[in-house]
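stage 2 :: seqdesign
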């Protein structure tokens, strides 16, 4: 494709939002899609008898896709912009996850904005992939009193944790390995 063709815009489509406006059209059974006061498209039944669930679902998907892509040019959509956006968001989510986990592991401060961005990316990817938006994660809380761990809360299933008592390790190493 040459640059001249790539930069040319097609005729503007009907503005969003689109919606299913009716289930029949003139002499045929079908699902009618409209925007404003005009009919945009009609999905007709194959046998002109009754609209099937699949045909209704097709009309619903057309409306959802058009409305979800508002602001993205048709040319960008034809070039795969939506899947590229999802791929880029997945790469960003990985980097955010590594950043947040590294900071938690190494106790190097806490950046709420980065953790929030990570959660938003995870939720958007899950929703786009047909999953559900996960519940917001609760922080893992380690209660320490007087240098002694009292309890650990909010550890997600499948996660492991290790508590290192550096005060106790120093005491062991200075006394031949025995705790004082």
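stage 2 :: out
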């Amino acid at each position: 494709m040459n640059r001249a063709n790539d930069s040319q815009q097609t005729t503007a489509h009907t503005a969003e939002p689109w919606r299913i406006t009716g289930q029949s059209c003139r002499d045929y059974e079908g699902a009618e899609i409209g925007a404003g006061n005009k009919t945009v498209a009609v999905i007709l039944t194959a046998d002109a008898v009754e609209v099937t669930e699949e045909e209704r679902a097709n009309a619903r998907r057309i409306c959802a896709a058009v409305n979800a892509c508002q602001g993205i040019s048709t040319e960008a959509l034809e070039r795969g912009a939506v899947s590229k956006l999802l791929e880029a968001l997945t790469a960003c989510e990985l980097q955010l996850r590594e950043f947040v986990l590294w900071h938690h592991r190494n106790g190097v401060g806490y950046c709420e904005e980065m953790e929030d961005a990570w959660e938003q990316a995870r939720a958007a990817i899950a929703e786009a992939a047909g999953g559900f938006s996960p519940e917001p994660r609760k922080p893992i809380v380690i209660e320490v009193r007087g240098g002694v761990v009292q309890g650990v809360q909010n550890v997600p299933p499948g996660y492991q944790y290790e508590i290192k008592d550096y005060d106790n390790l120093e005491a062991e190493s200075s006394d031949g390995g025995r705790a004082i």
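stage 3 :: structure notes
- The longest strand covers residues 28-35.
- The longest helix spans residues 81-106.
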